[in-house]
Write a structure and sequence with these properties.
The chain is of the alpha+beta class. The protein is built from three helices and six strands; from the N terminus they run αββαβαβββ. It has helices at 4-11, 42-59, 82-88; strands at residues 19-28, 32-39, 74-79, 105-110, 113-123, 129-136. A four-stranded antiparallel sheet has the order 3-2-1-4. A hairpin with a 3-residue loop joins strand 1 and strand 2 (32-39). Helix 1 (4-11) packs antiparallel against helix 2 (42-59). The longest helix has 18 residues, at 42-59.
């Protein structure tokens, strides 16, 4: 992962191109509610994403990268876990719960770090995926 940082820094050098718009609510099969993440500059974003994918694919035989679904840049807002699904007797989130907010614009986020998540049944104390590693490319300082 350390080898990625200089290349990622180069790609994200222009911070105006390293911005993500977060807006609109959608779902993956009514099991995950998410906000769309739209890059301010498509070319910069896909250079970033493709570099990470290529690096993972070439890292080691011990690293397994799955591309069984199209990549959908998103921010997960709600997800029905298996224990909650058993308790509710439903694994679905009704569209009516979030429908009035489907066109909401949440704001923007700088693309400044990479977290390689381990997608399995265990999570951190805060419910987020366990991470294999984190690369912080630059720190965003607010003018406010």
């Amino acid at each position: 992962m350390r080898e990625l940082k200089p290349e990622l820094s180069k790609i994200l050098n222009d911070k105006s191109k390293a911005t993500l718009k977060i807006e609109n609510l959608k779902s993956f099969g009514q099991r995950v509610v998410y906000a769309d993440v739209t890059p301010a500059h498509e070319e910069t974003f896909w250079k970033f994403a493709n570099l990470v994918r290529a690096s993972l694919d070439n890292a080691s035989d011990l690293v397994k990268s799955s591309n069984s679904f199209d990549y959908v840049p998103h921010l997960t807002l709600a997800k029905v876990s298996r224990p909650v699904a058993r308790e509710r007797r439903s694994k679905y989130i009704p569209t009516s719960y979030y429908q009035e907010f489907e066109d909401l614009r949440f704001g923007e986020q700088g693309l400044n770090n990479l977290q390689l998540c381990i997608i399995d049944s265990s999570t951190r104390f805060d419910g987020f995926y366990n991470t294999f590693g984190i690369i912080t490319v630059f720190i965003i300082v607010s003018a406010n």
